[in-house]
What we know:
Elements: E1 2-6, H1 13-24, E2 27-30, H2 31-41, H3 44-54, H4 61-74, E3 81-84, H5 90-102, E4 109-114, H6 117-125, E5 127-130, E6 136-138, E7 158-159, H7 166-180, H8 184-188, E8 193-197, H9 202-213
Helix pairs in contact: 2-3, 4-5, 6-7
This protein binds adenosine monophosphate.
The site of adenosine monophosphate has 17 residues, from helix 2 and helix 3.
Amino acid sequence: MNLILLGPPGAGKGTQASRLMKERGLVQLSTGDMLRAAVAAGTPVGLQAKAVMEAGELVSDEIVSGLIGERLDELGPDTPVIFDGYPRTAAQAEALDALLAARGRTLDHVIELEVDEDALVERITGRFTCANCGEGYHDRFKLPKADGVCDVCGASNFKRRADDNEATVRQRMAEYRAKTAPIIPHYEGRGIVARVDGMASMDAVAAAIDAVLGA
Length: 215
Ligand code: AMP
């Protein structure tokens, strides 16, 4: 199975992708995570991407499609994949079609998480993660049970993304509206698009996605 999770920043794509990875063995391919790793490692791609990401703009189509192609080649042809945060432009959607076709893969589902942008700004600007295990937290909605200690692994250092501030979040949403939402019709003709209410509780969103994917 190959599926795309679509939705503006903070819609819950990463949360749902991690869950699907644990529960169904799908592999999450997040271009945002790959780019952050490249920035942290100071690779040539990271050096090119850093300022663009901090401005909330989009990294070039060639770079992200290149990263996805490399990751697909590392995985066996039968490994089921979730694309999280990719494709984000019409050119990327076309590149993905070619990358999949060349590897004998087909796209089974495109799931769009529908959300309210103002609520998202609050959701995103409050989020942080454990620097050790990656568990996600939120200033208002999910603080660690013991102050400053990760519920999962007990570590006491946390991190926030450099682009999770209001101005950058608004810019990332504008990019989504202008460049990413218009790619949905590309898939609609194939009858593989499903829409899920991303403002519902995490469990309700999970149930709605499971209903789309089937048993
Ligand atoms: P994300 O973690 O998906 O919110 O991505 C964080 C940032 O990485 C975005 O705001 C973009 O600057 C960059 N990025 C991630 N994925 C892509 C993509 N598919 N195309 C272009 N830029 C991307």
